[in-house]
């Protein structure tokens, strides 16, 4: 044990940052290492020793040992500084839009375009024709409207005459901006069945309040009629908001108006109908709404997330009637929520995938369309490569999920690789997988660790097999 007095003496034994850094030069450390990195490494080691002293973990002898061996500690600190905190992982959970794992992976085309744009200058706000300042929104507006016109089967000229686009940081920012621009100081009508929390504290009632609007709740949780909306319209009403239910589903005795009914009501009272569509789905599946579907219905403004079913970068896309778009893009928050050149590069490339019919290169769409029998044959060949006899491996039917609050009811049939270990339980096995390089993220079903290859790129199958074979130790 060390008293306060002795602690003070121990601190005085520590070398200074300068002493450590100048000794590094003599000890054959990497000559290319910058002074700044040496200082950072020295600080890291000193910080650790100081907190150990403070915790009473050192005697004069143990501290002297540490100081003699400081070179090894510095090497350790430098190695830690070299490895990134943000690292690729293998998502074997079968959750396609896994928010904790970065949601949508980007297409090869998007990656190539980011690389090309990010390393140099680009015409982000420069009009090549006039040589004058341009608008970044215009970079993708035309292409986005062209893709939507193809999918919604509306002539491009009609669409581009009536609609404009804006790109915000994410869906949440886009929704906030739209409501702030169009509804501040007035009332917004929302069905009680759509007053959702999306996750991360994003709740529709609170967003409306922060945007300066007053929420008028319409109907009941399970049933809302168009007449309920009509009865709530007053001279204070500014907007009708429709929210995609994202992460839950109301079943049974339910009813809500079609978008077209809301639009008719909106026209009658001169109120815009805004849809927080969320998923950005380009393809219809079941009764879920789609991005082009909302446009085809004639929505006044629609907001979607770029990195859900649309399969692009994190972004919030707003497509709105020109007069509304003017109000939205002139709002001061538009400047605060706008995106950078990397997002535009990825977004435009993703749109080009849709436009040129190469959307199967978009990972989210490829994973969604994988057939259970193709997943089965990959699982079989992976299992055949497991040679570690401490592992027992089998294949069982199961389900992948879309995730990301994109399609609450949708489950996709898959085949899971179930693994048990002779001595480790499921949670120890999960941890060993997380500790591998790259980390493998899996799930537990009925006390067994399961891997779903739907979300693993095929080129990673052999890496995964190698990791499984080296878990035994
Ligand atoms: C996901 C979602 C959002 C939020 O979008 P982010 O891109 O995650 O910010 C908003 N509204 C709905 C309906 C959503 O599904």
Straight-line distance between termini = 38 Å
Number of extended strands: 13
The fraction of residues assigned to DSSP E strands is 15-25%
Q: Main beta sheet: strand number and arrangement?
A: 7 strands, mixed
Order of adjacent strands in the largest pleated sheet: 2-8-7-6-5-3-4
**Shape from CA axes?**
globular
Mean pLDDT: 92
Q: Helical content, roughly? A: 40-55%
| C-alpha-based Rg, rounded | 28 Å
Structural class: alpha/beta
Give the helix tally: 20
Q: Unreliable stretches, pLDDT < 50, 5 or more residues?
A: none
* Small ligands present: pyridoxal-5'-phosphate
Give the SSE map.
Blueprint: H1 4-13, H2 17-26, H3 35-54, H4 60-68, H5 70-82, E1 89-91, H6 108-118, H7 138-152, H8 156-162, E2 163-168, H9 171-183, E3 187-191, H10 204-210, E4 214-218, H11 226-232, E5 237-243, H12 259-269, E6 273-278, H13 291-297, E7 301-305, E8 316-321, H14 322-330, H15 332-337, H16 341-355, H17 363-369, H18 372-384, E9 391-401, E10 411-421, H19 426-435, E11 439-441, E12 443-445, E13 448-452, H20 461-469
Parallel strand pairs: 1-11, 3-4, 3-5, 5-6, 6-7
Antiparallel strand pairs: 2-8, 7-8, 9-10, 10-13, 12-13
Helix pairs in contact: 2-3, 3-5, 6-16, 7-13, 7-16, 9-14
The structure holds pyridoxal-5'-phosphate.
């Amino acid at each position: 044990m060390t008293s306060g007095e002795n602690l003070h003496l121990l601190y005085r034994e520590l070398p200074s940052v300068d002493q450590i850094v100048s000794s590094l030069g003599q000890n054959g450390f990497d000559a290319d290492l910058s002074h700044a990195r040496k200082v950072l490494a020295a600080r890291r080691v000193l910080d650790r020793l100081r907190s150990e002293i403070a915790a009473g973990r050192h005697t004069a002898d143990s501290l002297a040992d540490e100081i003699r061996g400081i070179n090894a500690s510095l090497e350790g600190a430098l190695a830690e500084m070299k490895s990134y905190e943000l690292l690729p992982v293998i998502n074997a959970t079968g959750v396609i839009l896994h928010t904790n794992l970065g949601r949508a992976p980007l297409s090869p085309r998007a990656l190539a375009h980011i690389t090309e744009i990010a390393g140099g200058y680009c015409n982000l706000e420069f009009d090549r024709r006039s040589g004058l300042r341009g608008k970044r929104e215009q970079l993708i507006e035309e292409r986005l409207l062209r893709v939507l016109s193809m999918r919604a089967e509306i002539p491009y000229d009609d669409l581009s005459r009536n609609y404009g686009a804006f790109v915000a940081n994410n869906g949440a920012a886009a929704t906030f901006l739209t409501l702030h621009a169009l509804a501040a100081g007035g009332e917004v009508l929302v069905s009680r069945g759509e007053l959702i929390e999306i996750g991360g504290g994003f709740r529709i009632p609170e967003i409306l309040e922060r945007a300066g609007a007053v929420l008028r709740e319409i109907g009941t949780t399970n049933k809302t009629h168009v007449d309920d909306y009509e009865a709530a319209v007053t001279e204070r009403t500014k907007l009708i908001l429709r929210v995609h239910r994202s992460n839950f589903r109301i079943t049974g005795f339910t009813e809500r108006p079609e978008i077209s009914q809301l639009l008719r009501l909106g026209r009658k009272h001169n109120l815009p109908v805004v849809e927080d569509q969320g998923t950005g789905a380009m393809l219809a599946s079941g009764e879920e709404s789609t991005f082009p579907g909302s446009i085809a219905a004639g929505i006044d403004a629609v907001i979607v997330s770029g990195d859900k079913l649309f399969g692009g970068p994190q972004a919030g896309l707003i497509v709105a009637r020109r007069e509304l778009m003017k109000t939205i893009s002139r709002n001061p928050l538009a400047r605060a929520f706008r995106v950078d050149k990397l997002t535009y590069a990825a977004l435009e490339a993703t749109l080009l995938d849709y436009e040129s019919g190469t959307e199967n290169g978009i990972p989210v769409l490829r994973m969604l369309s994988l057939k259970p029998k193709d997943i089965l044959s990959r699982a079989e060949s992976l299992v055949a490569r497991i040679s570690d006899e401490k592992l027992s491996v089998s294949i069982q039917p199961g389900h992948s999920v879309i995730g990301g609050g994109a399609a609450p009811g949708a489950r996709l049939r898959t085949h899971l690789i179930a693994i048990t270990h002779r001595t480790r339980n499921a949670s120890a096995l999960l941890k060993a997988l997380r500790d591998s390089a790259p980390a493998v993220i899996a799930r537990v079903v009925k006390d067994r660790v399961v891997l779903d290859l739907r979300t693993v790129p095929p080129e990673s199958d052999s890496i995964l097999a190698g990791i499984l074979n080296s878990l035994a130790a």
